[in-house]
Write a structure and sequence with these properties.
With 143 residues, the protein is an alpha+beta fold. It has a single domain, classed as 2,3-Dihydroxybiphenyl 1,2-Dioxygenase, domain 1 (Roll). Helices cover 15% and strands 35% of the residues. The protein has an eight-stranded mixed β-sheet, with helices on one face. Strand 7 and strand 8 form a beta hairpin. It starts with 15 loop residues before the first strand and ends with a strand. It comes from Mytilinidion resinicola. This is Glyoxalase-like domain-containing protein. InterPro entries: Anthracycline_SecMetBiosynth, Glyas_Bleomycin-R_OHBP_Dase, Glyoxalase_6.
Length: 143
């Protein structure tokens, strides 16, 4: 069977599935990372995902890991971000509702509640017991 017809398999729960970089100027930061890592595969933008708002990328190595440079609101200063400053790594979970009490039981806290991400799924952000921010992503399996 050719690779074009192979079923896409989902990574296991807990797999790193998205890395997010925040930017006031998405095209400028895309230019920076494109020059720094020329083997990153930036995806073409669409009407739904405009270059001013997001630049999606697949990282090298065939790992399936992807990410994006995501626009910060114009009035949001980096030091005023609700979730803190820095890159956010997202881990795949079966259910955000089931993950939240686990995180809290283990000493972590939620800092961004479950949020819809288009028709593809939902994400939420947490802090671990040391204050490190991380995200979880739940795929909309109805699509």
């Amino acid at each position: 069977m050719s690779s074009e017809h192979q079923a896409v398999s989902m990574p296991r729960e807990g797999a790193l599935c998205w890395v997010e970089f925040l930017a006031h100027d998405v095209p400028k930061l895309k230019e920076f990372y494109s020059a720094l890592f020329p083997n990153w595969d930036f995806k073409p933008n669409t009407e739904e995902y405009k270059i001013e708002d997001i630049a999606m990328v697949s990282f090298s190595g065939g790992s399936g890991l992807s990410g994006g440079i995501v626009k910060l609101p114009a009035d949001c200063k980096r030091e005023e971000q609700q979730n803190g400053v820095g890159t956010t790594s997202y881990f795949l979970v079966e259910s955000i509702e089931e993950t939240k009490p686990k995180v809290e039981r283990l000493g972590g806290t939620m800092c961004l509640p479950k949020t819809e991400q288009g028709k593809n799924g939902w994400f939420a952000n947490f802090r671990d017991p040391e204050g490190n921010r991380f995200g979880v992503y739940e795929v909309n399996r109805a699509n």
